[in-house]
Amino acid sequence: MDTSDPSIIFDAQGECDYCSNFAKTIAPNWHTDARGNTELMQLADKIRAAGKGKDFDCIIGLSGGLDSSYVTYLAKEKMGLRPLLFHVDAGWNTDQAVGNIEKLVDGLGVELYTEVINWEEMKDLQVAFLRSQIPDQDLPQDASFFSSLYKFARQHGIKHVITGSNFSTECCREPEEWGGYLGIDKLLFGDIHRRFGKRPLETFPLTDILVYKLYDQKILGMTVHHPLNLVSFVKNEAENELERRFGWQRFQHKHHESRFTRFYEDYWLPRKFGFHKRRAHFSSLIMTGQMTRAAALERLAKPEMDEHFLRQEFEYVAHKLDLTVQELQQIFDGKNKTYRDYRNKRWMIGFGANAMRWLGLEKRYFR
Length: 367
Prior knowledge:
alpha/beta
């Protein structure tokens, strides 16, 4: 991490606050040994008991990427659960992601439900966000994923949500300035779409973060579990295991299961705003002993994908969004803005995130 995160702090020894937070807050509370296994089995017993007489014990959002794929394998094979796999097709799946999902479903013998987002509405919202000129361009996809899953769980009385979110590959969270806005803010979405959208969002799922954090979890009793924090989850080993067991195919980098996210993180964000999310991804692997700093700097010295491929992707994204290449280029060349240029309730969401840290419910930095 470097000063492209404007809030980063270095101490007298040159150590940044991400590393000190990992050493002081995350590592002492992260147990992947016998203690973690005991907690994992107790969690499995609790979820199975709550699921008696029901079709499913829990629900898992599955993208086809590593984290969600491995937690699915863990839940079914090692925890003995009966999960419903929930996939949201927002129009940007890579063939590799679709293939990985099919292999897991067939190999594990589990049920899959796919929610298909209305493409015309998805497209309109994504173009509106692009025209807003803010770095947070993955918010429309994220909103469709989380909102659909929580809505489905709420409608079907599913109380246990299992997520692939973990410390091993995500202990260094991307700062807010890099497009890491803290959740789904309906006020922000509404203002951006009002200014730049062209059609009403009649079916697009949009659940405000305060609804699924407070109403769903605190009133309805829905609980989100992070089983990957209770086992030894090492990126290369997990990829090898999934490949050996199911023929699962690994991705070149994190989040490459979505064609738009791959383009956004590898082209749009670094070239338009100067932000490289790979810095945070690699920093997580460095802190957890899975990558050297020298190897990370070598990777960062060049784009993740070659120039010819990236130009092809630029054209693909433009055409898929019904924009000409010139129109997308004009947006790219436009004046950069931030969420602060639009109506939002970031202060309220930030207060909630800080409260979770004060209560010890969240150990990563949110800023």
